[in-house]
Each structure stands twice: as C-alpha cells, then as structure tokens.
Amino acid sequence: MKRLLFLIVIVLYNLSCFSQDFEIPFEEDGWVYIQVSVNDSEEKLSFVFDTGASSSVIDKSTALKLGIKSNHQQTVTGASGNETYNIALKQKLNFGEFSLKNLPLVIVDLNHLKERSGRPIDGIVGYDMISKFITQLDFNSQHLKLYSNIKAVPQLETYSKLKIRSIRPIPKVSLGFTLKNGTTLKGDFLFDSGANSTLILTSPFVNKHNLKQEVGDTYYKKSSGLTSTVSEDLIGNLKNVVFNNSMFIDVPITLSSSKNGVLSRKNIAGILGAEIINRFQIVLDYDNNTMYLKPNKSINRPFKYNYSGFTYIKKNNRFIVEDIIENSPVAKLGIDKGDELLSINNYNGKDMRIVKDMFQLKGETLALKVKKEDGTIKDYKLKLERLLK
Fold first, then answer.
1. Which of 64, 111, 282, 298 is deepest in the core (most CB within 10 A)?
2. Residue 156: what are its φ and ψ, rounded to 5°?
3. How far is CA 181 from CA 184, 217, 243, in A?
C-alpha cells in the first residue's frame, strides 16, 4: 500500500510539472489582444497584452462605465516623460479560468490608441501576469499559455535560450543592425511588444552616431505612446537587423527626438517592438531572468512601409487624414489633414485592417473618394509608391 501511495504521489507530481495551467486565445493585429473582465462585471473587454507594461491599465471611459474610481495617484516615467496618473487600488482582472487579484489599475484615456488601431481598447496588461507565470506567446496558434513550471513548456529544447536583464521591469536584449552605407552598430534594447514598430532608437543613440545623416533617406512622422503626447520622429530604413541569430532585411526604423522619458535615456539604444517580436515563438521566465525564442511562421513576412504618404485614424467611425508626409505622392494630389476617406476602390467599410492592407499594395493605383472639411466631395487617383529608396 505504501508503495502504491508513493507511485501515485510521483505520478501526480509529474503531471503537475508537465501540465499547462491556463490558456488564453488572442488576436494579433500588430498588438496582441485578449479578452478580460474586471471585478464582478461579466462584460468581455479587449485588453492589449504588452511586455512593456509595468502596470496594468484601464481606459478612462471603461472605468467610468464600470464604476471604477481612483483612490491613489502616482508619477510614472514613460516613453514621453514623467506623467502623474490616477490609480484604482485593489482591482481584479479575470481571464476566464483564473484571476489576478488586488491589482492597482492605472486609469488612462486610451482614445488615441483606439483611433490609431481602429478597434476597442479597454486596457493593457503585462508584468502583472508575466511576473506570476512562465508565459508563452504562441503566435502560430494565437494562444497565450501560462505555466507554473518551465518543464511543462512543450518542445522547449527547440528554442534558443537568452539571458535577459530588465529595466523598470521590461526585459532588455542585445541586437545589431547595419545601415545602408554598411556601418554596423549594436546596443541594448527594451523588449516591448506594446511598441507597434520594429526598432525605435533613443535620441542619445541617434545623436551619438549621427544617424539623422548616416541612415539615408528619411521623412518625419508624428507618433504617440500610452499618453496622448505627440512627438515628431524621423522614419528611415536599415539594410538589416540581426536578433537571436535571425537576420531581417530592409527594415523600417524610427529615430526618436525625445528629450524626456525612456527614449531620452543614455543606457539603452532603443526599443525592440512588435513588428519584430511577433515573428518569434516566445517563452518568458522572469524568475530565472530567461527568455526562450524560436522563429514562427511569420519570420520572413515583409515589413510594412508607408506607400500612401499620409497617416489616418478612425474617429467616430470615420477614417480621418491625420497627417500628410511632405513631398509624398498624396501631398501633390491636394488631400489635406482633416479630410475624410469615404471609400477606397469602392470599399466604404470601417474595418481598419482591410484599409491598412489596401494601402500596402505597392505599385497599385487606388481610387479615393474624399470629403473635404468644407463638405465638398472629390475623387482622386493615388499611386502607391515607396517613400524611402
């Protein structure tokens, strides 16, 4: 009998070591979206899973709808500088089979992120989950898998192992890249899946290596992070980027001009964003300062470039021209900031993903129907051309 009990204990132990604790389906559209409910509400909300989120965030309008009120304030350093936020303490996030309890939720107006993504964003979660589980981002099956034991991760031997350091507490990794003129540089980058980009170089790194001149062709683009603070950064492209033994060719890059916040720091070269991160299967083991990576089915996907010459947002269910890139094809047509895009090749739907895909058809000529700010409607023919040579 004792031997039988001993064998049962061994079997149960092995099952606990090699079992997956929880699995959360996600949708990937640049950012990773998961369904969450808050406190005792049964309403399913859309949260972004973000490895760069040191605190969980809830949208201001969502908090108001759910009756969540601030009872604390704290100053936090972000990409754009120091900001003082309202915080609701002792909140609960529910992910189907399990919950994260007694969390502080930072209350932020996320409307500008909704406008850029064209979809609802009720909040952001990252470190609060990653710090409690070994976290696997499976982009092939589009599931977030959580484990209590590293031995439970299947086929871990097929991954490469990477020691990580952290800053505030975002993972920090090393990588190298080559400019179009052949110059090779390397540095430490924050591993931030909430940055919807490839690489963003800090302003000290840009200035140290004279990259505004050395990187080649560039254009200015307005951007913003978690806060609605807008910065004007340079967009260029690189010959290649090498990360985790994978080489990426013809990579767009952002050169920051920030004077405050994370992107003004001298101790990092920049931020590694979702456009590269999402090309890997990822296992994060924060307790052991370790990350496991292997290429996924998107590893060779071409990078997205701006072929239209303008940026747009989805505001009040309308596509509005946000900014015009100087000397671009669209600037020569007479389309202006604030104009509304009524249709593209007769498509007048409101799915941002379809619109984005249409503007990626390099070499194609699109028929645009545009409503000017004075109410007049005009038709344009826009040939999609690459802005960077």
1. 282
2. -65, -25
3. 9, 11, 20
Q: For all residues of the chain together, what is the average pLDDT?
A: 89
Q: What are the helix and strand counts (H, E) for the chain?
A: 9, 27
Which residues 6+ apart lie within 8 Å of 297 measured at CB? 139, 140
SS3 65: helix
pLDDT of res. 25? 97
Q: Residue 79 pLDDT more than 50?
A: yes
pLDDT interval class at 328 (50, 70, 90):
confident
The C-alpha atoms of residue 218 and residue 224 are separated, in whole angstroms, by: 19
Q: Is 343 helix (H, G, I), strand (E, B) or coil?
A: strand
Q: Do 54 and 127 form a contact (C-beta atoms < 8 A)?
A: yes
Domain over 310-384 is classified CATH 2.30.42.10: yes
- What's 22-147's CATH class? mainly beta
Whether the pLDDT of residue 9 is over 60: the answer is: no
Judge whether 22-147 and 310-384 match in fold.
no
Domain extent listing, the chain: 22-147, 164-278+290-295, 310-384
CB atoms within 10 A of CB 332: 10
Closest CA to 123 of 136, 112, 108, 135: 108
pLDDT digits (tens, 9 = 90+) for 102-129: 999 999 999 999 999 999 999 999 999 9
CATH of region 164-278+290-295:
2.40.70.10
What is the rounded CA–CA span in Å between residue 370 and residue 380? Answer: 8
pLDDT at position 232:
77
CA distance 251 to 243: 12
